[in-house]
Amino acid sequence: MSDTTVLYRPVGRKELDLIRESGYEAFPPRLPEQPIFYPVLNEEYATQIARDWNAKHNTPKVGYVTRFRVRTEFLEKYEVHTVGGSIHQEYWIPAEELSEFNRNIVGKIEVIAEYRERTE
Length: 120
Hints:
The chain is α+β, with helices and mostly antiparallel strands. The protein has helices at 13-21, 43-57, 72-75, 98-103; strands at residues 4-11, 36-37, 62-71, 80-82, 89-91, 93-94, 105-116. It has one domain (4-116): ADP-ribosylation fold (Alpha-Beta Barrel). The model has no long low-confidence stretch (mean pLDDT 94).
């Protein structure tokens, strides 16, 4: 599938429930305070967010890593942003373009990891 790019998205339980409702075919619309949808370029970065943020700050305290493919041609109009170290790369998709982004997902959105807050 050289005409697609593999991306990742860390999500919490509420977002995963909405993805499930779509048949694992689309990400839900952004909330008014979320002007950008940011899929990330590698699993390690997605894992950091799911494990270190979602699993600690969401209710319930769980984070998931999703993996999916998007048509590369569609992504070419967006710039890759590095927001920390070299692994912290993501696309910034304006919220109003998320429906078009979803139409360019090829196949299903997969859940590849789950992280829960540790209670000692």
